[in-house]
Each structure stands twice: as C-alpha cells, then as structure tokens.
Amino acid sequence: MKKEFDVITYGRSSIDLYSANIGAPFVDIKAFNAYVGGSPLNMAVGARRLGLKSALLTAVGEDQIGDFLLHFLENEGVETRFIARKPGSRTSAVVLGIEPPSNFPLVYYRDNCADSKVNIDDVIKANIASTRLFEISATALNVEPSRSAAFYAAEVAVQNQVPILIDLDFRTDQWHDPRAYGVTARAFLKNSTIALGTEEEILATMLKDPDQIKIRNQQISAPEIRGDIKGAIKAIMKLGIEALIVKRGEKGSSVFLKDGMIIDVPGFPIEVVNVLGAGDAFASGFIYGYLNGWDWYKSCRMGNACGAILVTKPGCSNFNPTLPEVMSFVDGKGGF
C-alpha cells in the first residue's frame, strides 16, 4: 500500500535564538538570530530538503511564535496539519551561545510548553499508519499527556508494521530525575525498531544509580555520565530493537545490530562552527538512506555527511543541506 508520508516526526518544536556574536561568552552576547528548532522539527525539515515527504506531529501555542514556526515549515514543504494549537500554552523557546569549538551553552524555556500538550486525539488525527517511518524524540516522554500519546502512537505503528526510530534525546533539565528518563526510555525501546543516540544518552538510558551522573553545568543539556558503555549497548539491544546507532561526532558513527554485528562508519573531518543540531542532521541523512533501501554503512555515511555540513553553520533547521549539496560534499570527500 502506498503511504502518504515517508516520515512523521514527533516531539519538540521551538524558536531558537542563536548568538549572533560567534565566539563571545554568553554574558557578552549583544544580539541573537531567530531560527527554528527542536529535534523532530529539525529532522522533518532535513528529510524534506533531501526530497522525502515529511510531516511533523507537535503543538504550538496560540501566539506569534507559533505563527513563526508554521510559516517556516509551510515554506519548507513540511506537512503542518498535525500541528495542534494549544490554548493557554506557549510555543517553546531556546536561547543558545556559540563558542567554538566546544562550548555551546543553552537555556530552555519550556514551562507550560505547547508541544508537551500533544494528546492521544492529536495522534489519532495524524494517522501513524499513513507513514513509512515514525520518529520520536525521547523528550516527548517526559510528561503527560505527550508521554501516553507517544506510547499510543507506538502501538498504532506496531499494529501497522511501521518502523519506529527513537532519538534518545536526553535533556537533563527536562526530567525531574535522570533515572525517570531511563525507566521511560527503556519502556519505549521495547516498541522501537531503531534507536539513535550519543554514548552519554545510551548510558543515561541504562542509568539506575544517581551517583553515576555528574552535571557539568545546568545550562548544558547533556550530562557527563560515567559507566560501562559496552554493557549499556548490550542491555539496550536485549530490549528487542533491530539496530542501535551511536553518534560519535567527528569520529563518525557505529551501528550495533541484533545479530551481534558492529559496523563502524567514518566521519568527515570539518572545521566546527556550531555542533548544535548536527545529530538531527545526521538523523535526516540516515532516514533518507534507510527509506531508500541503502545498507547500514551507506545510510550512516549519508548521516555523517549531513551532520558535517551542518556543523559549519550557525543554526539547525534553517541550514539543513539539500540533496545536491550533500552529494557534492560527499563526492568532494571521496564518496560513500
């Protein structure tokens, strides 16, 4: 049966205010550029720019920031009819500093945010059976009603044999307890086909002891988690997924398969301007390859290329590459 969409992504959406003063400490920022963001939004835009038909399942407030997001998405060709307006809630916002090569402080404004109000009725309207792939970012699991809506969406996907990709997307300050993230993510992984995350996110998924976690800075979204990464990967694979993809930044990526095979995929050396959003660009490229029937290596190589291009840019969705741009980049770096 022909599907209406190649991918539906579910979760966060926001206005992103990026420092216009690249290299300036956060306290010395004089101006910000207004972009759009949120992992699922970034992936929907990235996939669309590569030529896939994408839709976004999220929510915005009845505010001008919501208008800003919808205007951008409509211009990009991303399907917006599954984006609900939530009266009494606000569209999310993120404020980010850019201090390359390694300091990118950010602050989330998500109190009473609209995308956390996505509910089961919103999922029903989205008709998950109509897509070839369903992607969810794990921050959508942090509170109700978006959490139960996500599990309902997973049920529908499984019933209709729609593969589920979960972006582990661990944002420390979005959970009342990091162990709650682990418990919830592990429960959702049992429904999932593919998981995607960094080593820190994989460790956080298996976190049971709070003494294992050390927060470097409350303004930084990812924690420093110490633990047995090999053991965490094995434990996640036992939950039943087909593949776990580990994002390793400039080192590329690795694929762990349920038959025990490990595929290491090299990255593309590049000068970094801003790493934020690179993982979402990777996911867009990977999804493109996966849905086009490419093997794991080539799909991840495509993801690596999209991520490498994005780290040379000052923002996320607004700078996702097109398919000709990615292919030209790959050709110039020795091909797949």
Radius of gyration: 18 Å
The helix-and-strand class reads alpha/beta
Number of strands: 15
Spatial separation of the terminal alpha carbons: 31 Å
Q: Could you name the CATH topology?
A: UDP-N-acetylmuramoyl-L-alanine:D-glutamate ligase
Structural write-up:
This protein has 336 residues and is of the alpha/beta class. It has one domain: Ribokinase (UDP-N-acetylmuramoyl-L-alanine:D-glutamate ligase, 3-Layer(aba) Sandwich), CATH 3.40.1190.20. 33% of the residues lie in helices and 20% in strands. It has 10 helices and 15 strands. The strands form 3 sheets. The chain has a 9-stranded mixed sheet, with helices on both faces. Strands 3-2-6-7 form a 4-stranded mixed sheet. A two-stranded antiparallel sheet has the order 11-12. A hairpin with a 4-residue loop joins strand 14 and strand 15. Helix 6 packs across helix 7. The longest helix is centred in the C-terminal third of the chain and has 15 residues. It is globular and about 50 Å long. About 3% of the residues have low confidence.
